[in-house]
Amino acid sequence: MNTLADFTFVSGLLFAVGIYGLIVKRNALRMLFAVEIMINAANLNFIAFDRFLWSNLPLPQAALGQTFVLFSIALAAAEAAVVLAIIVVAYRLHKNVDVSELKTLGG
Amino acid sequence: MSEAVSAYFIWGVFVAPFAGAVLVPLLQKAPKMRDYVAVLFSFVSAVFALSLLVPTLQGQTVAPSGPTSVPWITALGISVGVLYDPFTIILSNVVAWVSFLIMVYSLEYMKGDSGLTRYWFFMNFFIGSMQLVVLSDNFLSMFVGWEGVGLCSFALIGFWFTDEKERWVGTVGSMALGEAQAYPPSHAGMKAFVMTRIGDVAFLIGIILLFIYSGTFSFTQLAQNAGWATRLAQSGLLVPTALLIFGGAVGKSAQFPLHEWLPDAMAGPASVSALIHAATMVKAGVVLVARVGPLFYFALASNTSLVQPFFVTVAWIGAFTAFLAATQALVGFELKKILAYSTVSQIGYMMMALGLTGLSTDFAQGLSAGLYHLMSHAIFKASLFMGAGALIHVSESKYVSDMGGLRAKMKMTFAAFLVAAASLSGIPPFSGFWSKDAVLATAWDSGQTGLFLVGAMTAGLTAFYSFRMLGIVFYGKQSMKLDELEKEGHPAREVPRLMWVPYMILAVGTVLIGVLSAPLGLENGLEWASNAYLVSLFPRLSGLTGTSAGFNAVSSLIALGFVGIGFAIAWTLYVAKRYSASKLVHEEGFIHPIYTFLENRWYINAVYYRVFVDAPIRASRWLLSSFEIRGLDRVNNAGAYLGINLSAAGNWIDAHVIDGVANGFSLAGQAFSRTIRKVQTGITQQYIFVFALGLALLILALLLGAGVRLY
């Protein structure tokens, strides 16, 4: 039987992987993946805490974490779509998706 | 008996035009839609009103279902509500339908004007405010509507606020007692606002006095508990309060001595004049008197013997105004101004009828006569004004002398104008005859011979000026102005259908009401409505009601005699043209001074300007030269020199001490920012790295703090 600690450990690991990816990678697509991993780390946390700490409560509260995660997933999808669109535009303008070279926005 | 009507329909009557007013500015990008929406909402209001009229006509007096009153200012126990009784519903219908026809007419009449959003907004707001005045069951919300009406009249009279010369009212350059007698539209709007304001303030003081002594604004509550009347009478304020509230009506309904704004209110578009004269504004005062009359009748009667003075004042102000304005209309040369004088005069009749309520044994007779005259006046006067708008549009001039001979060229307008003018003159069988006769019969029945005679004489004057106007405009030769227009390729011809249909409908209405008045027992019906109104709102007055006195042959014949004389003179002079009217005026010795006197409005307007406009201006000029320039300015100058020297000293301190400190701070800031700027690389990934590092350190610190060992 897994404990809450197991889940939080995995979640922490995922978050660390995300941070690592965000810092080290220069490719915008890879950075997007890293962000997605971090979002999923947070989602996993939500589910885990809801399952272990709130499952005894009556129903609306008991499912609150899961409900949140559903919204979070939907928002993540929307965000990914926006970022992908930005990347496509950036590629059209610079023929490149290396963030270190995309500096024209910085002024 | 059918089901009770829904109270929401009553609210709808005044909420719909307000809703229209809100929508109009939102639609200004779509002008066509905006125009139709504005008209549609006045139509919705009229339909709501009609839905209430139908059960009323079937004799139903069941209370409406749903809320007729909702709390407003709970701290003072004030509610806002609507009335539902036959009298009010008939009034509301007159307002709603006449307004709707005017709105339809406006579609064509105002076409292409650049300020249409403003126009439709204020027209709808106007109708809504008037319905609020009519339907309110308390003084406070009535006052809100009252002020709304005042605001809209200001905005619409001054609608052409750019003041082009051809929009002025009055002949530019004409003077009386050294005062100019011509005004630009913006001035006329202001004049209307300021003059009615005098009445409004009186009204406000009156209702506040009432509230202080009774703790309520509601008509019903005031009528049920007469304790306030006793207390007011003890302080000697009862009659003053009644007269103050009546003062509001005097201002709004343009009665003497506050009548001078209405003739100049002609500066607005003709449709606005029609709305002000027929459906809204000036009728608000009549509504107010119909509400306070019964209220103060029993309050006065149960405490003192002061009934007579109050009602005598009301009736005589009405009668005098009727006469005064009618004489001025005799010599008018601006088409709309003649009609404006006539409105003042006809409202005088209504006031007289309402004043007579308290002077006769049958309270409802005067009330129903007033209501009848209001109704028939609204119909024929709206028709006349819209017709006048068409005539002015065609002849491109506001003067009747620039028209002439239009009978054959504008057949529809002529027909409508003829019927409406005949109705105004009180010629049978048109509605104006019956309603004026009802007013005069009331005066006759209550033994007020003086009032009756003034009324009957005024009826003669009315017939004269109506047919004088009709004769000059439609008979005789075409004027030079029209000849000129014809040469330029604009021959006079009938206006578009959208314009003449509304006033034709009203003209047909005045015929129908007139012809069917006797067979349908219209006067008995109105008497019943007035009775029902008195019983529902003022139960204590139920003993004062009676049945209609009906047709009174003697009074009618006397009045008809006067009408006949007026009509005959006007016909000889202006239609048959047996004698030259202008020759009469300029050559006959005694007529000329009278003519000038009337043309200058009995000099009342000029005196008002002298006393209330010029005198304050002169006083302020005197103050400027004697007190301000000689006295205050010297003190000012001394102060100014002192100030200049002080500030020079201050300037030195500023430049040497304060600037040094400020510069020091800014230099330090610059140095600091140069150093710190290097950290801001602009590379996101570095930021994230620092953020992650910080997070890691934070977690470490928390763990150590919680007592976790790392080794």
Walk me through what this model shows.
The complex is a heterodimer of chains A (107) and B (711). Chain A has one domain: Helix Hairpins, CATH 1.10.287.3510. Chain A is elongated and about 55 Å long. In chain A, helix 1 packs antiparallel against helix 2. By secondary structure, chain A is an all-alpha fold. Chain A has 4 helices and no strands. Chain B has 26 helices and 4 strands. Chain B has 711 residues and is an all-alpha fold. Chain B is globular and about 120 Å long. Among the domains of chain B are: 284 residues, no CATH class; 75 residues, no CATH class; 30 residues. Classes of the chains: A mainly alpha (107), B mainly alpha (711). The interface between A and B is small, with 9 and 7 residues.
Count of spatially separate domains of chain A: 1
Biggest sheet character of chain A: none
Q: Residue share in helices of chain B? A: over 70%
Helix count of chain A equals: 4
Topology:
The complex is a heterodimer of chains A (107) and B (711).
Chain A (H helix, E strand, L loop, with lengths): L3 H21 L3 H26 L5 H4 L1 H31 L13
Helix pairs in contact in A: 1-2, 2-4
Chain B lengths: L6 H20 L4 H27 L11 E5 L4 E4 L4 H24 L6 H20 L3 H19 L17 E2 L2 E2 L4 H30 L4 H6 L2 H8 L3 H15 L8 H4 L5 H10 L2 H20 L5 H23 L5 H23 L5 H33 L15 H15 L5 H15 L3 H26 L5 H8 L9 H24 L1 H16 L15 H23 L5 H7 L3 H9 L4 H73 L7 H22 L6
Antiparallel strand pairs in B: 1-2, 3-4
Helix pairs in contact in B: 1-2, 1-4, 2-3, 2-4, 3-4, 3-11, 3-15, 3-20, 3-21, 4-5, 5-6, 6-9, 9-12, 11-15, 12-14, 12-15, 13-14, 13-18, 14-15, 14-17, 14-18, 15-16, 15-17, 15-20, 15-21, 16-18, 16-20, 17-18, 17-20, 18-22
Which features characterize this protein?
heterodimer; A: 107 residues; mainly alpha; Helix Hairpins; 4 helices; 77% helix; elongated; B: 711 residues; two-stranded antiparallel ribbon; 73% helix; globular
What's the short story on this structure?
The complex is a heterodimer of chains A (107) and B (711). In chain A, 77% of the residues lie in helices and 0% in strands. Chain A is an all-alpha fold.
